[in-house]
Amino acid sequence: MKYVKTKKILNQAVADLSALSAMIHQIHWYMRGENFIKLHPQMDTYMEQVDAQLDEISERLITLDGSPYSTLREWADHSKVKQEPGIWGVKTSKRFEELVLALRYMTDLYQQGLDATDEEGDAVTNGIFSDFKGDFEKLIWMICAELDLAPEIDA
Ligand SMILES: [Fe+2]
What we know:
This protein has about 160 residues and is an all-alpha fold. It has one domain (about 5-145): Ferritin, core subunit, four-helix bundle (Ferritin).
């Protein structure tokens, strides 16, 4: 079988991107306080970005004769992105710190994908992982800038 490691990482990303989308939705819904008017709609753009990655990664997996996780239960069972019930009273900055941690996990996963696709000779999936890793590194920079922090990305 070809692309075994690549397909495993693609499906891991399917589960994780689904959880990441839910996490951002929670931030969008449970946001109160400073900069709400600006940051609430900004979360919509982040969700669109994550959902677009989810669709492209799932369809690449199908193209390679794989089967993406497609139920809430599968996503929850397989995702390593932390999910907690929504509660009020958490500062947006705290939620953003957790979002940055989740995005750092995703860029690490995409790096694993880059290594696996190099090893297995899948240049097309390599390009997808490369683009998406860059997109999330940029997002980490922007959210860290909002938090007055350096992005701390070791390229
Ligand atoms: Fe909304």
